[in-house]
Design a protein that fits this description.
Blueprint: H1 3-13, H2 18-29, E1 34-38, E2 42-43, H3 83-86, H4 89-97, E3 100-103, E4 110-115, H5 118-127, E5 132-135, E6 140-145, E7 151-155, E8 158-161, E9 167-168, E10 178-179, H6 182-195, H7 218-234, H8 239-254, H9 262-274, H10 279-292
Parallel strand pairs: 6-10
Antiparallel strand pairs: 1-2, 1-3, 3-9, 4-6, 4-8, 5-6, 7-8
Amino acid sequence: MTPDCKTALTRLTNHPTGDRLRTALALATAGVPVLPLREGKVPFGNCRACARNVCGGRPNMKSAGTCQCPAVCHGWAAATTDTRVINSPAWAAAWRQAAAVAYHPGGAGLTVVDLDNAEAVAWARKTLPPTRTVATTRGEHWIYQGTMRSVNAVRDGVDVKSTMAYVRWRGHGTGTATALPAVVRALAGRGASTVRPAPLAITVPALTGGGECRHRTPAYLERGITMAEQRITAATNGVHNAVYRTFLAVLSTHGRCGCLTDAHITRLFTAAQTKGESLRHCTDAWTNARTALGL
């Protein structure tokens, strides 16, 4: 450990947030990727160098970029098991401001069923196989071994958090984590079906002179939609604005040429809803973007 790291660690362990740092180090040593949270259970925002994703994407995420920023950037993707990073001066300020420790369940090979009220807990006890449970302020976390995609609001008071998500650490809980069951995996399909937007009919003017639309090239369109999904997924704060700006960018390129299909729009809406956006917010953002462009 460098002298700077030793100084930062000493300062933090003598500070009230030192307990959080020790918890984070213990989890990381056990192979659980961790990150600090601010008040309100929200991650620290990107630093100036990484604002608006200009750095190229989330750290350690090959599909989204190769950012090597040492700061606590990119939300859940900042979670790490590297104790040198957790102890580094670059993270020291975040630990001083931290209100809690969070972990990336997918990175630890886990899935958390987040039960947010008594009714949700009662449903889980009747429906789901027993596993490790952790008490929360309003309900319980049920932790299973195995990963899946994260989906919010699969039913009233129930979120599924695994890949591309973070969960506040609330202790080890009781019981033994069991294998991720099919009934939990099926919740992702149910969640997707309940929030999938209704098909939107897009009326666009024909090209002048009847020329063939260059955007109908499959690779061009697919690359654009994939980049749009990644842009939404990478948003760590200001999700509403990120979704609107992304919809605006897609429509400005493809909105007048007849390329977009219901399947493309569904992909964009699904990406937004995975980040917690409601169907109404998605529909409003899409409508507002069309209006802004005169479509």
